[in-house]
């Protein structure tokens, strides 16, 4: 199975579900703090692949949700400048395994990349891996 370097906002419960799904599939996952990483433009770009620039942005970032930032309005250079200044703008997770990098957690893409041993259980739960979640007992806002 794969060894994955997984950058996310530590404490994110959706990320915890994603990591658990990867580990249940037999993968080794090294979780790192995306917000503490000193990203440079080349590093970030290497995770985005052929995604349109607007999809590089975290749609749950407070600045995106408030309308302060319209992801569709930026070219690659401007987007990278913003993201290097405010890491909450970076779509999560950023993952690397075997020299291949990926942004976001689309279970079908992850399965095609490194595989799930239980795709029949993981793939139907795609929406669960895409949205922020908190237990009902916690009065926390959605993850940025």
UniProtKB/TrEMBL annotation:
Gene3D superfamilies: Glutaredoxin. Belongs to the ArsC family. PROSITE patterns: ARSC (PS51353). This is Arsenate reductase.
């Amino acid at each position: 199975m794969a060894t994955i370097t997984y950058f996310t906002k530590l404490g994110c419960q959706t990320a915890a579900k994603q990591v658990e799904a990867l580990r249940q599939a037999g993968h080794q996952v090294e979780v790192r703090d995306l917000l503490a990483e000193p990203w440079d433009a080349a590093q970030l770009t290497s995770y985005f692949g052929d995604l349109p620039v607007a999809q590089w942005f975290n749609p749950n970032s407070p600045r995106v949700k408030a309308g302060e930032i319209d992801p569709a309005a930026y070219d690659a250079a401007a987007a990278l400048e913003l993201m290097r200044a405010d890491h909450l703008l970076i779509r999560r997770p950023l993952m690397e395994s075997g020299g291949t990098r990926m942004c976001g957690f689309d279970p079908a893409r992850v399965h095609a990349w490194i595989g799930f041993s239980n795709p029949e259980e993981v793939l139907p739960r795609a929406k669960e891996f895409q949205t922020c979640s908190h237990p009902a007992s916690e009065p926390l806002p959605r993850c940025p």
